[in-house]
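Database export, one record per block. Field names are fixed; values are copied verbatim from the stored entry.
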Amino acid sequence: MTEALTYCRICTGHCGLVVTIDDEGRPVSAHGDRDDPRSIGYICSKGSTLPSAHTEPSRLLHPLKRQPDGSFVKIGLEQALDEIAAKLRTILEEDGPDAIAGFRGTGGFFTTAGLGMLPGFLGALGSHKLYTTLTIDQSAKVIAAYRLGIWPPGKQDFQTSDVAMVMGVNPMVSMAQLDTRNPVKRIKAAKARGLKLIVIDPRRTETAQYADLFVQPLPGHDAAILAAILRIVLENGWHDAEFCADHVGDLDQLRAQVAPFTAERVAERAGITAQQLQAIAEMFARDGKRGIAATGTGTDMGPHSNLAEHLVEALNVICGRMIRAGERIPNQGFVLNRGPKPAQVVPLPRAWESGPQSRLGDYGLVGGEMVTGKLADDILEPGAGRVRFMLNHGGNPASAVPDQRKMAKALEALDLLVSIEPTMSATAQMSHYILPPKLQFERPDLPIYLFEPNIFPTPYTRYTPPIVAPPADSEVCDEWWVMWALAARLGVQIDYMGTALDMVTAPTEDDLIAMTLVGAPASLDEIRRHPRGYYHDEEVYALPADPATAGRFATMPDDVVAEIGLLRAELDSPASDGFAFRMINRRSRHRMNSMGANLPELQRLMPYNVAYMNPGDMADQAIGEGDWIEIRSDNGAIRVLAESDGALRNGVVSISHGFGAFPGDADFKTYGASPNLLISTDRDLQTINAMPRMTAIPVDIRRVEAETV
């Protein structure tokens, strides 16, 4: 037995691992690395079971080709690529690049060489149709930045805050927001130094156990709650008046637009008290002098999500929670986002209003991507530009994308679906070709670099080499190489993050990683010399503003005014919509979206996704522990097992996403149920990003005798 150092690439926690490898070169176990300065020994069940992902018999080890009867046969990788390229060339000749799309899922985001390759591959073909899970996750954050304006030095950081407010996020489980590095220890340390923590969530989450102030509203009212908090802050003069005078262009307009959202009106609708809203404003804005408010998927997947995200950032703005000129910037970025950071507002052009547009609806590019809420329509709707080919890189849209039956129909309608996937996922089952990739321990990587200042408190990266070889006699592929090889066969040139690739001789993964680091302050060779991570010791300070170029925050642009008007009208309308409950999603320690569904140990820990309910609601509905219940929205129904959860407020049912066989009618105790069957992508879409309503879904619940719908 030997041991090797690496880190987990399932989520942004990037926890350090010590992996035990047997004499045959197979990973057999993993435990947290206590000497890792980021995670200090922390590891969850997903990370500890990573070795089994490499050796699990259900892992795909050879490329597969689907037959007319739906079965699969092995095919050589080179032959598969020849056939795919030939079919792709025909589609390009017949319908042009608009018929070509790529989809990137969670797995694709955490492979360094592959992350930059999919956009390069699509760009080489002339296609702008990159779809990813980001636009059905927290793309409201991108929209808020573009509508509000950005502050280059960034916001104040959690590590030096005296107050923090989180809404719709559970960092103890999701490893997102606040501090992703062993969040339990980090929050305990922050509390010990005096941090005040505000948590707003329909469930008393694991994070709420550490809250100084916990408020438990009904789901779906985040935007109204934030409007009421802004009103209280402005009404009492608890905002940073000097900062606003210098950097906010429309404070009076913000004040006027939030005026109707009184604490009493909002509290009554949200199922809380006006005193709680007052207490939030006092703790965050009156008493707290440093610290930020942040949201997660609970807010950004709910109704009025773009407005809610805009309002939480407006709260940070009017309270002046920005790094000022002369203050140190904790992390300006390591791979991306380096350069001078003046302490001023930089207005951004609205990318979705120019450039490529969706052929269905008024949607453009968000963060350089097409909006996934319209992906199924882009495949199904006849006409010029209909998607006929899709390359699925590390994703499972059959499970992840809302309106599952519609997504199923769309995937079935593709002329050619190719999945780079290690298991027979729901999407893989529908693919014409499945190309199984190397797994984490078999490839080199850097930590994900897209959100560096948000997940790394200081400039940091870490190179991990492959620590094991792929299984003997397997024919697994490098994810990036699939795209390079297809482009080479088609005779097109890939631009990889600003570097034109040699399309005759393939680069190595280390070559691509070195290209990724072109603007970084350390070379790949230097980073390699730090096996537990390279921490760049630099002192970067926010520069004074340039009066000639400084802009002002736009807290109430016209489209935000329109959205808050709709919210105000909703507040004035009758509260009841005919449904008795709201269904919310919840994270689990034992799954990352649909990843882990094939691993026996994780299946044992969480074999299916039960529906959690408040015990009082269960009693009112005559539902007992372990009873079958039907959850029905106006778009569909699922049947699941009920379980009580006293941490949930009344009127709420909570269920984990990422479960369910495709199209959702298989054995529940084997696969769980898909909440996406309850969600529509034909309506309730947000403007700009087509974000579906993925949480706070109006539902009814009834006890039933069996699981079959």
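Remark 1: Residues 77-95 form the longest helix (19 residues).
Remark 2: The domain at 578-704 is CATH 2.40.40.20 (Barwin-like endoglucanases).
End of record.
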